[in-house]
Specification:
The protein is α/β, with parallel strands linked by helices. The chain has 21 helices and 32 strands. Among the domains are: about 80 residues, no CATH class; about 170 residues, Chitobiase, domain 2. Helix 6 links the parallel strand 13 and strand 14.
Length: about 725
């Protein structure tokens, strides 16, 4: 932006200097307005060269025209009257007009409510009627959902989804909205609301918009708003407000990360004691949240990170079994007991310090009984593999000696561990030990509990996490995971990474049987290229950190990828070296100006202009992720405020990545300005590219739009929206 600011200053000086020489010259680049990124303040220059602070909402903007894929202005204007109707062109059965399907009527009703909340044309929702098109009236908003009418719909080039695309024809006598599906109807109505809002805020006549032809649809198919509501508690109302706001911006999915190291925020039916002493959402609360998302054309993606980021679950479990040593549970037809399994595994309470849970019994490789190969040939010819893992036992012998079942106050713990410098260590991120039959069954039972619940609510996607499993060097100390790969998976050169990938594949396969498509983070896939098991190609990848297999490599393996690179997509409530991580830390690049001008949702790189794309068939979408690494550092109100313009910038670039000021546009404007000083009339056309989507227009647009129509001002308080009446059959003229 500094380059642009310098350029603007030059242009202002040039205009003043050459005004006498070229009195007819008018430069269309917005040289009168600029943004001080350090102070976060907008300034405007008057005709005498003096500048003063301004509210972005007071600046004139026509950003909606740039946001949509195609805008062709016509002649005249359209004014929406209170007598207008939302007229749904009905499908017919035996020549009889049928009412809109429930899903379509919901989209129409919500659109009418949002229009009324925005005041168009009044605080009362327009009536919704249906019938044959010939019975529509002058001034109506006529809806043609081609998915129902079985007609052809040709979306504008570059859109990722026919169902989400639409065309708007705004004429002096009415509006026609033609869409490829229910979502297209909804997004077309949102564009109308934004167009009315922007035109009126610019000082135009009430309820009036210019006649035009709009062809539009999202460039990115799945646009995900990710909320870390596991570390930090968000109320039901706050999450519903997040959904409303995200939907108005154009997101079509919300991922709810309800569990992490600092908390578990959704009640469990199989282990209800897990949330007994923490603020959490009930099953009824979450049901309401999912229903709200569905109403607002957003799908809910549950996020339950396994096997890591589970320190809250581990510590709560250990506290519980200390008070309830007779704890048991059933999974997949087997009963697991916290006490009995310890003895069966050959680990006694005498080996454990009851105060700390530190086990001194030694590892399997320390107590290897001999060089006996099992029937699969593991260990034959060598007592150790190339990684130094003892391979001389049979699988059954290893099961008797393995160091998988550590104790906590005399009961089994589920915590994972690793060997660092000869000392057994655990950490907040290490999570649950998937080589322990007992711990694995506990984790699977909890995962299935949540998966079945969300499946019953209609969810079809599930994020199983898989990130930051071993805290870097933990992989080299996870001998018990490497031994598991050797003895349980039958891989002579097995590694800890094999055990991890096998677990993720098995978890995904189990959830796929429930109807889910699973996704996971990319950072632990091919971490050290020691994997002998490939990640199932059905698992989609959320790409947030580079260095462990490129996005293109994952795509070649058949994985669908989602762009969530932290330097573009992360808002983090946290500190780095005592300072705010967003302002002075590693996420300072995540600011609205940088996102708007430089982010390419399809390029899987932290570097602007890198063009690291994947084939279109493997590109699933992109994210905006709200993380609460330090749960108490910022309030919900602060998080809401600080993500407001950020999420607008992210959402706009996902909808139309061509927005922003490119270097080429700046150079063109500079060249045009130079020519203009000598009276070249081509300056206007040359600089139009810069003016079309300038950052100042975006900021003005965002300020005018607010959070969403009807927002009451407090994230924890859900406002009551105007309610549209049910659709009625249109009367003949």
């Amino acid at each position: 932006m500094r380059k642009l600011n310098t350029f603007i200053s030059i242009i202002c000086a040039a205009v003043l200097t050459f005004s006498l020489i070229v009195p007819a010259f008018t430069l269309t680049v917005s040289a009168e307005t600029w943004y001080d990124s350090e102070d976060g303040v907008w300034y405007e220059t008057d005709e005498y060269g003096y500048y003063y602070e301004v509210d972005p909402a007071d600046l004139e903007s026509h950003f909606v025209r740039s946001l949509v894929q195609s805008f062709e202005e016509g002649s005249g204007t359209f004014t929406l009257s209170r007598d207008a109707r939302i007229y749904n062109t009905a499908r017919t059965v035996l020549w009889i007009a049928r009412p809109p399907r429930d899903e379509l009527e919901q989209a129409l009703g919500l659109s009418a409510s949002l229009m009324a909340a925005a005041g168009f044309p009044s605080a009362s929702p327009l009536s919704i009627v249906y019938g044959k098109e010939k019975y529509s009236k002058t001034g109506d908003i006529v809806i043609k959902n081609m998915a129902d009418l079985k007609g052809d719909f040709e979306p504008v080039e570059g859109t990722a989804s026919d169902e989400q695309s639409y065309r708007l024809s705004i004429r002096e006598d009415g509006i026609t909205l033609t869409a490829g599906g229910d979502a297209g109807v909804y997004y077309g109505m949102l564009t109308l609301i934004k167009l009315f809002t922007e035109e009126e805020a610019n000082g135009g006549s009430a309820n009036t918009v210019p006649c035009c032809e709009i062809s539009d649809g999202p460039s990115v198919g799945e646009r995900v708003f990710y909320l870390d509501c596991g570390r930090k508690y968000f109320t039901k109302s706050a999450i519903k407000n997040m959904i409303r706001r995200a939907s108005f911006r154009g997101y079509n999915a919300i991922e709810l990360h309800f569990s992490d190291s600092d908390g578990l925020r959704l009640d469990s039916e199989v282990f209800p004691w897990l949330t007994a002493d923490i603020e959490s959402l009930s099953r009824e609360d979450m049901t309401e949240i999912v229903q709200t998302a569905q109403e607002y054309q957003m799908e809910v993606i549950p996020s339950f990170d396994v096997p890591s980021h589970n320190w809250y679950i581990v510590s709560t479990y250990e506290d519980y079994v200390t008070e309830n040593p007779d704890f048991s549970f059933e999974y997949d037809g087997t009963t697991y007991r916290a006490l009995d399994t310890a003895d069966a595994a050959g680990t006694s309470a005498d080996d454990t310090d009851s105060a700390t849970g530190d086990d001194d019994s030694g590892t399997a490789s320390d107590s290897a009984p001999g060089d006996t190969a099992d029937s699969a040939g593991i260990g034959a010819g060598s007592a150790y593999n190339s990684a130094g893992i003892y391979t001389g036992m049979t699988a059954s012998e290893w099961r008797q000696t393995r160091y998988q079942n550590r104790l906590w106050n005399g009961c089994l713990t589920i915590a994972n561990y690793y060997n660092r410098g000869g000392a057994i260590s655990t950490s907040r991120n290490v999570g649950i030990d998937i080589t322990s039959d007992y711990a694995l069954a506990f984790l699977n039972a909890l995962t299935d509990d949540y998966a079945e619940f969300f499946s019953d609510l209609g969810c079809t996607k599930f994020d199983i996490g898989g990130d930051e499993v071993m805290s870097g060097d933990g992989w080299t100390g996870a001998d018990h995971w490497a031994e598991y790969a050797v003895y349980e998976l039958g891989i002579t050169e097995g590694t800890a990474a094999d055990t991890f990938i096998n677990f993720m594949n098995e978890t995904a396969a189990r959830l796929e049987k429930m109807g889910y498509t699973c996704r996971m983070f990319n950072d632990e896939i091919e971490y050290d290229e020691s994997e002998h098991i490939e990640l199932s190609s059905s698992i989609e990848i959320v790409y947030w950190a580079g260095g462990h297999g490129s996005a293109k490599k994952h795509a070649k393996s058949g994985h669908t990828l989602y762009h969530d690179i932290s330097k573009w997509c992360y808002y983090v409530s946290g500190l780095q070296n005592g300072s705010d991580i967003m302002t002075y830390g590693k996420y300072s690049t995540v600011n609205a100006e940088n996102i708007f001008n430089n982010w390419d949702p399809r390029s899987f790189s932290s570097t602007a202009g890198a063009n690291k794309t994947v084939d279109e068939e493997y590109f699933g979408g992109a994210y905006f992720s709200v993380w609460c690494d330090s749960p108490d550092y910022k309030t919900v109100d602060t998080i809401w405020e600080e993500t407001d313009v950020l999420s607008w910038a992210n959402a706009c670039k996902m909808w139309n990545p061509s927005l922003g000021i490119t270097d080429a546009a700046i150079e063109a404007a500079e060249a045009a300005a130079w020519e203009a000083t000598y009276g070249d009339s081509a300056a206007t056309a040359a600089s139009a590219e810069l003016q079309a989507a300038e950052y100042s227009e975006f900021c003005s647009f965002a300020a005018k739009m607010g959070s969403y129509p009807g927002f009451g001002g407090a994230p924890d308080v859900l406002s009551v929206m105007p309610q549209a009446a049910a659709a009625e059959k249109a009367k003949r003229k």
